Structures are given as structure tokens and as C-alpha cells.
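Quality-control log, excerpt.
Job 1 of 2 completed; input and output follow.
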Amino acid sequence: MSDIPGHLLTHPSSFSPSGNNRVSATVGNRCVLTCPSKSNMTMVTWKISPKVGGPCTLGYRADQNKTDRTNCSDSMNWKFRPDRDPALEIRQVGIDHEGNYTCEVVATEGNFHMTYHLTVLVPPRLTMYCDDHGNPVCKAVAGKPAAQILWVLESNSTPKEEGHDNGTVTVLSTFTAYSTNVTNTTCIVSHPAGNQSMTIACHP
């Protein structure tokens, strides 16, 4: 059993512990990922590994005051001037932006890096209708992650899920009332991108 404390094995002066952050953004919105800004930066690199498509990089070199990009889409760019603020901006978040984003800063006081795992949220479209038996049906279409459907009045319904190729999920729930004199039924869709509700009147 070694009694060497773990912090002796690294060189604190040349390396800072990396942050690993989980962030989420709603599709269509703007997303800004910050990066540790140091006074004497010589180089900044964003390394992006999306779940879909190949990796891309954005780089900045202070000695040449030059930026370069490799395989990055136009929707991703520096938020401001990288010599002042090395934050990355995604102008319109899409499902294909989901993945890992690592910012590496080389400065006179050492190397710093920060990793983000970006999850993209897609709010589902909410629809309601009456089925052939007069039961209210609530449908949360193409949400990511799958939405949860709740009924204001108690129901013994079991939601059905259907996955789509782009990672979204449609959830369908049929309201089955314990008493037949229910007229208005309200369905609540709970989702990280926001909750929605709708009411319908069905006649059995």
C-alpha cells in the first residue's frame, strides 16, 4: 500500500484539474460554452466530438493572431474575439450538436482544459384527440428525452413509447376513467424543455 499522497504525482503548476460539465440546450436556441480565460494565452483549441458526424476543431494562436477551423459547421464559432474571451457559441442548436466539447488553453502559467457534455433537448409537440371508444388520447410527439404524460384525474393508462431515428421519442397515453361521467379531461406533458397541458371533452 503506497502512502504517497495523490497530489504529489501531478505538477500543479503546469496543469489544472479539468472540469467535466453536463449542460443542456433546447433545439433552436443559442448556446454559449465558456472556457477559462488566462492573461497570457498562447493557444486556445476547442475540440468538438459530436455524436453524429466527424470531429471538428476551432483554434487560435496568439503569436500569429490567427484563428483556424477544421470541419466545423457555420453555426459554431467564437462568441467574441478569442484573444479576449475564448468562449464558443452555437447560434442555433440542432440535435446533431449533441456530444463532447473540450476547450484547451495553453498559457504561461500552465495548461487548462474544460470538457462539456452537451445534451440537446427537443420539446415534444402535444396533441389530443378522442379514440373510437370515446377515450381521450394524449400524444407527446418527437420529444427528446421522452416526455412523461400525466392526467389531472387518476387514470390506469400505460404510456406507449415509439423511438425515432433522430433520437426523439413519441409517447402516447390513453385516458381510461374509473367513472364514466368525466367530461373534460386534462393531460399534462412533463419535459425538461418545459411543461405543457391540454384539455379535451370526449363523449363515450
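Job 2 of 2 completed; input and output follow.
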Amino acid sequence: MKYTYYGQSCFLLETSNKKLLFDPFISHNPLAKDVDTKAIEADYILVSHGHGDHVADLVELAKQTGATVIAMPEVAEWAQKQGVEKLHPMNYGKFSFDWGTVRMVTATHSSGLPDGSYGGNPAGFVLEVDGKQIYFAGDTGLTIEMKVLADIYNLDYAILPIGGNYTMDVDDALVATKYFDCDKVIGVHYNTFPVIEIDTEVAVDKFKRENKTLLLPAIGETIDL
């Protein structure tokens, strides 16, 4: 499986037979100016919540790729009104697709859509695909509900926000890894805005001291999972 980072909380997971794009915010992100959105391919687009820094390119990329959008019903309804045709609304539950299983899980955040309408509840996702279990927390603060994941899954990777202010910071993310028992973390939602800027070397070192791994791919970089 391959992971490509596009900045903020946007990334692509390439499984054995599908391409899964998450929280598309690229063209409005100055740090991602070298990413060619026209070249992005996706079979599914998974959206954690309705804030602009997670859906800014959703409509354009859904139409461009023909991907099915997986999102809370309110976000899916908004996307449909923008002309997106292939939608799979979900809530806090689990669904088995022909390529793997998706569970939507709680995130402690807020959610509004670009037009000011209600965005439903924020969420994260746990994916079971290609023999791996991967947790994308979405935008969330540290929450005790993360402990439930350890009862259900043996997570291979956790993709966590680490920028603070709007979400967990590095220290909270470390606590979270103990809640759901996962030692390999990919950091997202940092350095895009001044209030979420972090010292990446310090962050990586904090994880090392806890015998854990924090991966911080550069924007546009692809790594193997």
C-alpha cells in the first residue's frame, strides 16, 4: 500500500486495486502549490467533515475522477447540490465495500460547510484493507473514546492531526497512541497556518523517546506502508 501526502489533512492511499483520497484541500493551500490536481486519480473520496480546509477541492475532484464520496449525510447532501453524483452517506457505523471495510468513528471537533450550512458531525475513519488496519482520526482533540479502538482493532498505522489549536498537538497525539495501542503514526494537519506550526524535529524526537515512529512525509512525497 502507498501513501501520498498532499498537505494539511489530504492524502491518497493506493491499495491493491483502489485509490482512496481523503479530505481534499490542495489548490487553496500555498504549501501544496506544486501538486497538480489535474493528475490526481481516485476511486473514492473520504471526507471527515465539512470545513473548507478539508473540502475545498472535493467537488472538482469528485467530478474529475468520478469517485464515490464517502461522508456524513449532511456533507454528502451538500456535495450532491454542487453536482456530485456518486455518493455513499455514512454515520457512526461500519460498511463493507468490495475493496475493504470502513468504520466511521467519533471526532471531537465542529463541522460547517463552505456555504455556512450545517455540516453534521465530524468523524474519523478506520479502514480494513489489504490486510492492514489504518485509523485516520480526522480533525479531533484527544478523547477517551479512542480507547474503544484498542478493543476492536490491532492498528497498523494511525494518521493523526498534530498541529494543536484546532486539534490534538504532538503531546496529545502521543497519549492517543497509548489509548488505541499503535506505534506507527503519520502526522497531518500541521504547518499550514501560523497557529498550527510545529517544530518537526522536536515532534519526531518526542515519538522516538517513547519508542514510537512519527512519519512526516513532504507534500507530494509517497511512502510505502
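Post-run check on job 2. The chain has a mean pLDDT of 98.
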